[in-house]
Amino acid sequence: MRLFVAVRPPTAVLESLAETLGREVDDRWHLTLAFLGEQPGPEAFRDPLADVAAHQPPLVLSLTGGQTFGGRVLSAAVTGDVPALQELALHVRDACRSAGADIEDRRFRPHLTLARGRGLSVPAALAAYQGPPWVVEGFDLVHSRLGRRAEHAVLNSFPLGGFRTQ
Q1: Can you give the pLDDT at residue 117?
Q2: Which of 3, 24, 43, 94 is deepest in the core (most CB within 10 A)?
Q3: Model pTM score
């Protein structure tokens, strides 16, 4: 079972991005916190992820502009409480490692992947894009089924339990 942990922006945020790009919302759009790869099942990750979520306060993010990774991945950049998002990703990855996942030890670069291919560049509309802010109130454990079009199924949702002070 191929698993990952992700933050999914609200529908209104994704609709704003899709409208800017002149395309339909892709229900698979998300911010990956940790890719767990093939696992026997989700059970080992539920309690450690629930513990991480319980201690993390909500955070505010926005999608803004675009970027490419090596001309092969086009993505929307993330702004807002990025340090808090990076900390969340670190705790999620540590929890998943403690539960048995062999997670690559590479730098977390928050982004929302829009396309994969060769020779991709950032369209002007995306370069100028500034999306609406949203409050991240939780994250999901997701099962990814590969095929002609990958399918994602949320197995568990983990609401953030901390509180936000203004």
Answers
A1: 86
A2: 3
A3: 0.91
